[in-house]
Design goal:
475 residues, alpha+beta, 36% helix
């Protein structure tokens, strides 16, 4: 177990980073202690903002020696509470935001090395400056940071083509739980020399080490970009459309987002200037193609997909973006869905995945199950159909008491996750486990799974000082 730091210990931590980067005033700490959905509010005696890997290592060495709990934090955009210090725990926040430098970039070998605190948007811009693409993209790209993206194995909208963050990491620099620095910043495409140690830390949510820098994969920038919204009558039709789009576009199919009709209604009501791109439909799909050879290639592929889909009766209507500005507007509409739901009262959210071919059946069963269990509730599913990850959110009944509805969060989870289990899916597809889903993880994974996780945690963090109580319960 860890202990709360004494005033003398706080002074020792402060000396490592300097008084300007050691925040003890609650007013200065506010933005580090609440998360976007306002489900978690934290408390800490100290927020440390190190400026180098060596300072992070010094902080961890002192924490290891004194049994002090540390909560690593990136851009504080996580949705499961893993980055928020627990009230009354004495946990110290270690913010990586000052460590935001580009250390190296090489267009010839398609790689760059960045520090953990670099915002995702800045990493994308650095790649673009040398005519390369870093394909990870999230709604929070201006705020989330590379270290947090890696620690949570972030997904986003381009997984269908480029994979999760795990697929984009060549190497890592990590401060271990005893303060040693592991330099694994190798930029090799192939390396079978023993265990792939970086994979221990990707998706570990700061429980096994603190990521301080990463070597990342880059790709050629697409020379053509096409996007379209289509309206259709069912997820089953969307699945057929996905198969067709894959056949036509192959690797260059970089986005395939399924959106329920109700989610689109919410967007029109609450996002300034938003309007549905095609006529009223039960479901919508946003398709993106990023072609390697040029705009004509992208346009031809998109036109072929929509023409064939219309002829086959897979879609009812469709519209292709006529400019890059319209492509961006299409994506802004998609990325605004979570914000739009806030204005409809309480929303109980699920970040789940099932095999891609089971998405339609899962949606049919899950929507029927929640309406039966919670009469009047409004399912608002949307998400990355191309990789099987659906954000199955359920808004409160109109006119219901928000607090009373949210108090039934666990009941709703049980209904939805029972359906997920029947399809051999995951209850934590891309947002991670943190605190919110810790008990769900234990209930949804085998005893052997949990035992192996505990063994790894005990081996790499025997004192339990790194993000204690996240992912797996404290022993």
């Amino acid at each position: 177990m860890t202990s709360a730091p004494s005033p003398d210990l706080i002074a020792r931590f402060t000396a490592i980073v300097g008084a300007a980067n050691a925040l003890t005033d609650p007013a200065d700490q506010v933005r580090y202690l609440t998360e976007w959905r306002d489900l978690f509010r934290g408390e800490t005696p100290l927020v440390l903002r190190p400026g180098s890997t060596e300072e992070v290592a010094a902080i961890v060495r002192l924490a290891h020696a004194t049994g002090t709990a540390l909560v690593p934090q990136g851009g504080n955009t996580g949705l499961v509470g893993g980055q928020i210090p627990a009230p009354g725990s004495g946990e110290i926040v270690v913010s990586l935001e000052r460590m935001n430098r580009l250390r190296a970039i090489d267009a010839l070998d398609n790689s760059m090395v960045v520090e953990a605190g670099m915002p995702l948007a800045a990493a994308q811009a650095a790649a673009a400056a040398v005519d390369r693409l870093f394909p990870l993209t999230l709604a929070s790209l201006g705020t989330c940071q590379i270290g947090g993206n890696i620690a949570t194995n972030a997904g986003g909208t381009a997984v269908i083509a480029y994979g999760n963050t795990r697929s984009l990491v060549l190497g890592l620099e990590v401060v271990l739980a005893d303060g040693r620095i592991w330099n694994g910043l190798r930029r090799l495409t192939k390396d079978n020399s023993g265990y792939d140690l970086k994979q221990f830390f990707i998706g570990s949510e700061g429980t096994l080490g603190i990521i301080t820098a990463a070597a990342l994969r880059l790709f050629p920038r697409p020379r053509g970009l096409a996007a379209a919204y289509v309206g259709l009558d069912s997820p089953q039709r969307a699945l057929a459309l996905l198969s067709r789009a894959r056949d036509v576009a192959g690797f260059w199919l970089t986005g395939f987002e399924l959106i329920s009709g109700l989610a689109m209604q919410f967007a029109e009501r609450h996002i300034a200037g938003a309007r549905r791109p095609v006529a009223t439909a039960s479901w919508y799909v946003l398709i993106e193609i990023s072609a390697g050879l040029g705009q004509a290639e992208a346009d031809a592929a998109m036109e072929r997909i929509l023409t064939e889909a219309l002829a086959a009766g897979e879609i009812d209507d469709g519209v292709i973006a006529q400019s890059l500005a319209q492509v961006e507007a299409f994506w802004q509409l998609r990325h605004g869905l979570s914000e739009a739901q806030k204005h409809e009262g309480g929303s109980i959210k699920h970040d789940v995945s099932v095999p891609i071919g089971d998405v339609p059946a899962f949606l049919d069963e899950a929507m029927a199950a929640v309406v039966a269990a919670f009469p009047g509730c409004r399912p608002v599913p949307f998400g990355h159909m191309g990789d099987g990850n659906i954000h199955f959110n359920v808004s409160q009944p109109e006119g219901a008491d928000k607090a009373a509805y949210l108090d039934r969060w666990n009941e709703m989870n049980a209904v939805v996750n029972a359906v997920v289990a029947r399809f051999a899916g995951s209850v934590a597809a891309e947002h991670g486990v943190g605190v919110l889903k810790r008990d769900l993880l234990a209930a949804s994974r085998s005893d052997v799974d949990i035992e192996l996780m505990r063994t790894l945690k005990a081996a790499l963090d025997p004192k339990g000082i790194l993000n204690p109580g996240r992912i797996i319960p404290r022993p």
